[in-house]
Design brief:
The protein is mainly alpha-helical. It is 63% helix and 10% strand.
Length: 145
């Protein structure tokens, strides 16, 4: 496959790149649909409190075991907060795993993702410009005959 060297770029490489991009797009579309159904689930340290978040990380449900009502208000607040944080973390982990499954390993930061994309785009554009220059030269050579 095309490693980024314009000298080794072939039309078949472009077809493979296009096919892979289409496959990735289909996986991303599917993942986006699945992400909408993700719920994060978390519970307090003692399991008396459960929380559930939606796909956007919003809290949608908190369930308290009747025994939780015997806790002090401060302890109850801390345990609810813990359950909600764990639910959010769980939802986030599920979203990330779904995206990893769809596109492979994710870059650590959005800036790195943009940088990688720019590098690929630059390399592709350079290769295409060199191909265009070669085609133009071939046409000029043909016209001169």
């Amino acid at each position: 496959m095309y490693p980024g060297d314009p000298e080794t770029f072939r039309l078949d490489d472009l077809n493979q790149i296009t096919e892979r991009a289409e496959q990735t797009q289909r996986r991303l579309t599917s993942a986006a649909s699945e992400i909408q159904g993700i719920n994060g689930v978390g519970e307090s340290a003692d399991g008396r409190i459960q929380a559930r978040t939606d796909a956007n990380g919003r809290l949608i449900e908190v369930t308290l075991d009747p025994r939780a009502m015997k806790m002090s208000s401060q302890d109850l607040g801390e345990e609810i907060t813990l359950a909600v944080r764990r639910a959010w973390d769980d939802g986030e982990a599920r979203r990330e795993q779904l995206m990893r499954d769809a596109v492979g390993e994710l870059p650590p930061t959005p800036d790195e993702a943009i940088e990688r994309f720019d590098e690929i785009l630059h390399s592709f554009n350079r290769a295409m410009n060199e191909r265009d220059d070669r085609i133009d030269q071939i046409i000029r050579d043909i016209d001169q005959r």
